[in-house]
Design goal:
This is Sensory transduction protein regX3. By secondary structure, this protein is of the alpha/beta class. The chain has eight helices and eleven strands.
Amino acid sequence: MSAKILVADDEEKIAKMVATYLEASGFQPILAYDGLQALHAFREHLPDCIILDINMPGPNGLDVAREVRKTSSVPIIFLTARADELDRIVGLELGADDYISKPFSPRELVARVRAILRRTMQSGKDTSQTELLRHGPIEIDLKKRLVRVSGETKDLTTIQIDILSFLMREPGRVYSRMEILEACIGSAYEGYERTVDAHIKNIRKALGDDSDNPKFIATVRGAGYKFMEQPE
């Protein structure tokens, strides 16, 4: 069965163009033209991925993402025509997996959808790696895509789980932002490198970590991030 992709954009021409490219690539698009329609379609169809325009009437894309994240970790890609990178960072802090700026290439957007869905599916099927990853109080069930801290389940998105598990595989090793992006996303797009900070911020928040006095993820100034070695 083909993956269902919810496309929410108040510009009908853009939404239908994206739908055409998604259909040609074997996906099943579901269209919405404002925030309320997007939320209704999300609840009715339970899509495998959501493409959200930030600037929509009624609840905008950021508002829709907030509602979706209350109940679901479905991958979200933001579309934005705004030049201010702050909007992109806010979107990522709300739990989005990616963003793409307008005007954009429909083929690139479809490629990003495909990459996100591939990561989501492969993460639960990769038998070449241990299903459980543990360091200190943190445990990741790679097959079920669950993160627990001292036995308590934490809510992380697909990309956040990928980043955390990537860092945890070699505690103490420092990874640059570019290395993290290339390993967890497959490629790093222009301007995207800086947004890894937003993902790290969300991971720390979910884990109850303090950036000023970290127990799990430390910032190495001028170099990147590392998962701290945990006491036995």
